[in-house]
Structures are given as structure tokens and as C-alpha cells.
Design brief:
Layout (H helix, E strand, L loop, with lengths): L2 H7 L12 H17 L13 H12 L13 H4 L2 E8 L2 E9 L7 H51 L8 H8 L36 H8 L3 H15 L10 E4 L5 H9 L3 E3 L4 H47 L4 H10 L1 H4 L2 H17 L4 H8 L8 H28 L7 H7 L1 H26 L4 H5 L9 H21 L14 H18 L8 H15 L8 H11 L2 H15 L14 H29 L2 H26 L2 H26 L22 H16 L2 H4 L9 H33 L11 E3 H8 L1
Antiparallel strand pairs: 1-2, 3-4, 3-5
Helix pairs in contact: 2-5, 2-10, 5-10, 10-11, 10-13, 13-14, 15-19, 17-19, 17-23, 17-29, 19-20, 21-22, 22-24, 23-24, 24-25, 25-26, 26-27, 27-29
């Protein structure tokens, strides 16, 4: 793989604009090369292509030896030096690096001068970004240090409640060399020039239990100095060992609806009660915070390394084209710069590892490092094989169904209408789910192809996210099961003796639904348990939407549910058909039941109602008027769905007018919101007219095609009020299933561009990490907020 592609593949996508623009610099070098090729001596007709004279002339042209002087002739060092790199300081501005090209007067030197100017701009951009991020992680490490101090003090208080200030227990602990951790604290109380997590000590462990890295640091110092510093550290931190708990409050994260209601009536923070439950929650939050902080350090270190490697590669290309040997001087400057000489990130990583292993992995380094550095998920050949096998089985089953229909002449059978009214809705549920999974599999494929960081956007744990192969495999497996069930139940002739259909085939659809729910809630670690539980958690948050903080996975799932209204109605039909109908005779009185008709409307409104109250919750939290407009959009859809459903059940001219008007307004508003707000398109003054400034897909026509398709497919749901309820060659149930499938396809298209827009927003804000709430608040912080 060429370095340019490897460099792009290793980028932190949200920081891609902060990386060195390797491709652009490479293009500048190509211009230098083309100029030299144009001005090199062209061999005449009398000069053989392989002659010695031609080889010498080309060599001189590319070596810059046109003056006729011998290469090994003595020259001064200043004359041989092609560049001079210096540091420029401006008042109020970070130091900048500037390269002076000493041979700009040479033929074609202006091309090389442009190259070095752009190279300096890229290097200064990289250095300033790296310095800014390092300062941010240092500040974050200071806060994590304070949090660790409180956590360890809380553990002492909970596990050893008899320990109090002023008693002999504290003196005994301190006399054994025990103190609270003092990361990023120097002995004189000031932060050192290069902060690091030093002297992380468990309160229940002696000084001999330090990690190897700390022992090496201490071992290099005089023993007397170590003893003095140890005593000073004990004297400094011993009095505050438990006093740190006096002005601390614990963050009460609303984890349940009851705790959320309690948080509305009371503050989001509360005084410590020194309970084991508080200790458990605090430890969980600190674990998440340290893991996320360590991932940030890893990516920052990768950013530093990849950019240094890129500068090295581009300078070697420059030397190869011009043979000026300027890379040595420039790379020496890179090594002396903050980018090459700073080791804060490496030292922080070592201290985070030591802290996590000692405090959260019981000293088990292997266990701790497996958590901090999860292994990259590998593609398995078994998945590829099963995917191909099940896909082939699905195609074969579809062909078998078509053949059976033709052989048995089922389309003209007397029981065709009965089958479409009672059996087809049962199996259409699985068709909707399979189609949605196929669309989501395609979404993942294109997100990966265009390097959209969807695991970060959805907040998935690293190494647990599903790829497009896994989702496609699940959809293929469900397709095989449902198609096999259709074949087993593809009988339209009733038994003339019993006047009933066979019970076992009639129960197959219900058995398949129960099987799917058992798999979904299975507690064993099979069939992607982490993903299943993540889905269940998001669904639970949707169900109790106003009582949980709304995150992107929650409202994204709710949006998916709005495209599965017909699937919810199919589930309602399952209940009515099997519990109140005569399924052995394929008879149901669902359409005649007022209760069924009422729930037919309610289940269609539920997904939109969830999105509506999610918008209200976000409006209350974020105070952003856009959420009010979004909620108004969903409220208009609720009215439109209600009018359409009532019109479908009762008919009437007035109802038709109301249904048409409400549906038209809702369609226009939803379509505008999809394209302009969710996708960020139709920006007239953008760099890409009528699109947006940044695009991931290089083919601009894709965005215009998607926009047109979204508009057309939005109109499909108006088929009820437009009068296309039946077709001469299609049953009413089949037409409803086709319209529902079109909405699922539209949702799949919407998914890609919605997450693409979210990814570009993260890129614009350099947001590559999720914010993890810390367990403790300090009294002084609350006072500052009140002030």
C-alpha cells in the first residue's frame, strides 16, 4: 500500500483537517518534477536512446549540475546547504517555524519556494494543533487526579468506617508510607513543568507496591532524597486524606425513571452518604473516564507519529526529485520541535496504565491492558461462508415459492383472499424486518467505505460494533427462517373432514415471533449479545423517552421505528388473530372490533409520539428552538396519521379533505427537514452549489438523486388519501406491504446522509471523543457557578 493511502487510513477522521496535507504537497513536488523534465536536454535523432551522452545529460539535469563543476569539487558548507530553518516568535502568537530556501534563484526555484512555504504552513498547523490538544489532556489529567483522590478517600471511608481524622489509625497508615495519590503535584505544591501521574499509591498498600515504572524513576534518585520526599509527601497529604470528602458531592446520574423524577424535584448532585452503592457507581464512572482518556492519549500519540512520518516521507521525495539533500536539516528541526520532543503524552499513558491496573484491575496487567487496548475486530472467514450459504438458501427458497405458486395455481385458488387477509400480514412482518436490516447493512458498508466513524457517533464500545457482513448475515438467517415458514404454510385448501387447517403449520408464524424475542432477550453470550443489549437499552429509553436523557442512538432508533408503522400493526394483528380469532379456520373478526380499530390508530402514532416527547425533552435541556420546530414537525405527522387512519376506517368527504390537507402539510415539512436540516443540503451559497461545503461522496450527482428519491418516496405514504388503495393486479394487503417497503428504503437512504452530516459536524469541531461524566463535584465549583 502506498504511503498516501496508508496515511489516510490511519487518520483520526474527526481530525483529518488538522493532519498534514500530504497529497497537496505531493502534487507540488510533481510540478517541480514536471518542470525539470520539460527543461532537461531532449535527445536528438543522432543521439541513441541508450547512449552515454544522453544518460550524462539527464543525470546533470536532474542533479542540478548544469554549471559544469564536478560533483566532488570542494564547496563551502553554506553553499551546499539548500534550506535554513529558523523559529520566529511573534507577540501573543505561538512560535512559528520558517524555512528559508537558499536556492530560489536557480532555474525552477520558484516551484520549490512554493513547496517550502506550504510545507511550513502545514508543519505550523500540525504543531499548534498538537500543542493545543496536549494542553487539553494535561488539564483533563489534573481533573482526573482530583477525582481519583476523592474516590480513594471514599473507599477508605466506606471500607474502613472507623478511620477518622485525628485518630491513631491515620497516623499508622501514614507511618507505613501510605498517602492519597498526588498525580501532577510537585512537592512544593506547584505543577511541574511536565506533569505526569507520579506516586500513585493505594491507601491499603505499602510504598513497596509501586508499579515498575515508578520504581525505576525512584531508583535513579539518591536514597536519602527518596526518603525525604516520601516524608514530605506524607506530611503534605496526610491531613487532607479524608478531609477531601467534606466539600464533595456525588453526581447522581438519572439511570431510572424514578431517579429522573427525583432529579427534577431535587438537585442533580447530592451529599455523599458513604454507601457501597455510591462507591460502586463512582468506580464505574471513573473506569469509563480513564478508558476514554487513555483512548484519547492513544489517538494523540498516533497523530504525532503519523505526522512525523509524513514529513519524513515528503522530504525524502523532495530529495529524490531535486537531489538537494535538504531532508536532514528539516527533519532535525522536526525532532527539535514540540511535535518531536514533547513526551507528555507518552508519560501520561504510562501513568494511566499504572493507575488503571493498580486501582481497577487488581494489579493484573494483562486484564487491565486488554481493557485499555481492546483488540481490533478481525473479519472471520466463517461469517463470509455462512453469509454466502444463507444468501443462496434464501434465493433458492424464493424460487421454490414461486414454483409452488405456479404449480398449484394458487393465484386463482378460492382461498387466495382468505390467505392474503389472514396469513400474509403475519409473514409480512418478517419481510419488513429483513428489508430494514439489509438497508442498514448497506449503510454500514458505505459508512466504512467513505470512512464515516459510525461506532463513535452511536457510542458503541470499541470492538463490539457490527460490520455490514454481520448484519447481512443476520438478515439472511431471518430470511431463510421466514421463507421456510412460508413454504410450510403455503396451503390454501381446508381439510374437508374437519373443516380446519392443520394446527402446526398455522402456529408457525407465532412460533417464529416467539423465537425471535427469545433470541433478542437471551442472556447468554451468543449472537452478538452486546449489540442486542445495546438495542434493548435504546428501545427502553425510547419507551420512557421523557424520563431519560436523549442521545443520538435513542432518537436514531425512534426514527427507524417511524418507518416500521406497518410492522407494529402486524404485531397487533398477531395478538388479535391468535387470541381472539379462529386461526384453525383462518378467520378473524379484527376489522369488526372497535377495540382493534382504536389500537390500529394508537400503534401507528406511538413511534411519532416518542420522537415528539424526545424533542420536548431536548428542548428543556438544551434550550434550542430547533427542537421545538422538530417537535412541531412530528406533531403535524401525528395529526396527519390520525386523519388518514380515521378516513380509511370511516370514509367521508370532510375526512378526505382533512386527511389530504394534514398529510400534505406534514409531507412538505418532513421533506424539507430531511433535506435541509438532517442532511444539511440545499445551501445555495456553498462551495458545492445547492449542496453543502463538505461532501464525503465524490460524485455530487448522488446527493441530487437522493434528494429526488426522498421527495418521491415521501409521497408514497399518501397513497391512502390519493385513492391508490387497490390495484387490479394486486391485493390490498400486498399494496400496503409495498408502500411500507418503500418507506423502509427511504429510511435507509436517509440513514446514510444523516450520519454523514453528523460525522462532518464532528470533523468541523474536531470532536473525536465522547464526554464521560465524572462522579464527583466540588463545593468550590458549585460556589463559582452560583456566583
Amino acid at each position: 500500500m502506498k504511503f498516501g493511502k496508508e496515511f489516510a487510513s490511519q487518520m483520526v477522521q474527526e481530525w483529518q483537517e488538522a493532519y498534514m496535507d500530504y497529497n497537496f504537497l505531493k502534487q507540488l513536488l510533481k510540478e517541480v518534477l514536471r518542470f525539470r523534465q520539460r527543461n532537461s536536454p531532449v535527445p536528438t535523432a543522432t543521439t541513441p536512446r541508450g547512449s552515454l551522452r544522453r544518460k550524462v545529460s539527464l543525470y546533470r539535469a536532474f542533479s542540478g549540475l548544469t554549471t559544469g563543476r564536478h560533483r566532488n569539487s570542494p564547496r563551502k558548507r553554506d553553499e551546499d546547504q539548500a534550506i535554513l530553518v529558523s523559529t520566529v516568535h511573534h507577540q501573543g502568537v505561538e512560535e512559528q517555524y520558517q524555512t528559508m530556501f537558499m536556492m530560489s534563484s536557480d532555474e525552477g526555484g520558484e516551484y520549490e519556494l512554493v513547496f517550502f512555504r506550504r510545507l511550513d504552513d502545514e508543519f505550523n498547523k500540525v504543531v499548534n494543533f498538537y500543542r493545543k490538544k496536549v494542553e487539553e489532556v494535561i488539564e483533563e489529567a489534573d481533573e482526573l487526579t482530583r477525582q481519583m483522590n476523592v474516590l480513594i478517600a471514599l473507599r477508605i471511608k466506606v471500607e474502613n468506617p472507623v478511620v477518622r481524622l485525628g485518630e491513631s489509625h491515620v497516623v499508622n497508615l501514614a507511618s507505613n508510607g501510605v498517602s492519597l495519590p498526588s498525580q501532577f503535584q510537585s512537592l512544593n505544591g506547584k505543577r511541574p513543568e511536565r506533569p505526569q501521574m507520579d506516586a500513585i499509591q493505594e491507601v491499603e498498600m505499602s510504598i513497596e507496591g509501586l508499579m515498575e515504572a515508578e520504581e525505576e524513576r525512584i531508583g535513579n534518585e539518591p536514597k536519602e532524597s527518596n526518603h525525604t520526599k516520601e516524608n514530605e509527601g506524607v506530611k503534605r497529604f496526610r491531613p487532607a486524606s479524608l478531609e477531601v470528602l467534606d466539600n464533595v458531592k456525588i453526581n447522581v446520574a438519572p439511570e431510572t425513571p424514578i431517579s429522573t423524577l427525583r432529579g427534577i424535584l431535587m438537585s442533580s448532585t447530592s451529599d455523599l452518604s458513604f454507601s457501597k452503592e455510591e462507591l460502586r457507581k463512582s468506580k464505574e464512572l471513573m473506569t469509563q473516564a480513564l478508558i476514554e482518556f487513555y483512548q484519547k492519549l492513544r489517538l494523540l500519540k498516533s497523530y504525532c507519529f503519523m505526522n512525523q512520518l509524513a514529513f519524513s516521507k515528503i522530504m525524502k521525495k523532495y530529495d529524490k526529485i531535486t537531489t538537494r539533500h535538504a531532508s536532514k536539516a528539516y527533519l532535525e528541526m522536526v525532532d527539535r520541535s514540540y511535535l518531536g520532543s514533547s513526551d507528555e503524552v507518552t508519560r501520561l499513558m504510562e501513568r494511566v496504565e499504572a493507575t488503571y491496573i493498580k486501582h481497577f484491575a487488581n494489579g493484573n496487567r494483562g486484564k487491565g491492558m486488554n481493557t485499555l487496548r481492546p483488540k481490533t475486530k478481525r473479519e472471520r472467514h466463517r461469517i463470509t461462508f455462512l453469509l454466502g450459504f444463507l444468501s443462496g438458501c434464501s434465493i433458492a427458497l424464493v424460487v421454490a415459492i414461486v414454483v409452488l405458486i405456479q404449480v398449484r395455481n394458487l393465484l386463482k385458488s378460492e382461498g387466495r383472499g382468505q390467505y392474503m387477509d389472514n396469513i400474509f400480514p403475519l409473514y409480512s412482518l418478517f419481510g419488513f424486518i429483513v428489508l430494514h436490516m439489509l438497508m442498514f447493512s448497506a449503510n454500514i458498508y458505505f459508512w466504512r467505505r467513505y470512512r464515516v466513524n459510525y461506532p463513535f457517533i452511536f457510542g458503541l464500545k470499541q470492538g463490539t460494533e457490527l460490520g455490514y457482513r454481520e448484519v447481512f448475515l443476520l438478515s439472511a438467517a431471518l430470511s431463510v427462517l421466514s421463507l421456510a415458514a412460508v413454504i410450510s404454510n403455503l396451503d390454501m385448501k381446508i381439510d374437508p373432514k374437519t373443516q380446519n387447517f392443520k394446527m402446526l403449520p398455522e402456529l408457525v408464524p407465532m412460533g417464529l415471533v416467539i423465537f425471535l424475542f427469545l433470541i433478542l432477550f437471551c442472556p447468554f453470550n451468543i449472537i452478538y449479545r452486546s449489540t442486542r443489549f445495546f438495542l434493548i437499552g435504546s428501545a427502553f429509553h425510547c419507551l420512557f423517552a421523557p424520563l431519560y436523557k436523549v442521545t443520538l442512538p435513542d432518537f436514531f432508533l425512534a426514527d427507524q421505528l417511524t418507518s416500521q408503522v406497518q410492522a407494529f400493526r402486524s404485531l397487533e394483528f398477531y395478538v388479535c388473530y391468535y387470541f381472539w380469532g379462529n386461526f384453525r379456520k383462518r378467520e378473524s373478526k379484527c376489522q369488526d372490533s372497535n377495540l382493534y380499530q382504536a389500537f390500529y390508530l394508537v400503534v401507528a402514532i406511538i413511534p411519532y409520539w416518542i420522537r415528539f416527547i424526545q424533542c420536548l425533552r431536548r428542548l428543556l435541556e438544551e434550550k434550542d428552538g430547533m427542537h421545538a420546530l422538530n417537535g412541531l414537525k412530528y406533531f403535524s405527522i401525528i395529526i396527519a396519521v390520525s386523519m388518514r387512519t380515521i378516513y380509511e376506517q370511516k370514509k367521508g368527504t370532510i375526512l378526505l379533505i382533512l386527511a389530504s390537507a394534514s398529510s400534505g402539510i406534514a409531507t412538505i415539512g418532513a421533506t424539507y427537514w430531511d433535506i435541509v436540516i438532517d442532511w444539511g443540503l440545499l445551501r445555495r451559497n456553498s462551495k458545492n452549489p445547492w449542496l453543502r461545503d463538505k461532501l464525503i461522496v465524490p460524485q455530487k450527482s448522488v446527493y441530487f438523486v437522493a434528494t429526488v428519491l426522498n421527495v418521491l418516496l415521501r409521497l408514497a405514504w399518501m397513497q391512502t388519501v390519493l385513492g391508490f388503495r387497490e390495484a387490479p393486479f394486486l391485493h390490498r394487503r400486498a399494496l400496503v406491504a409495498i408502500v411500507a417497503s418503500l418507506e423502509i428504503i427511504r429510511r435507509g437512504i436517509w440513514n446514510f446522509f444523516r450520519i454523514e452530516n453528523e460525522h462532518l459536524n464532528n470533523v468541523g469541531k474536531y470532536r473525536a471523543f465522547k464526554s464521560v461524566p465524572l462522579p464527583f463535584n466540588y463545593g468550590d465549583d458549585d460556589d463559582e457557578k452560583d456566583a
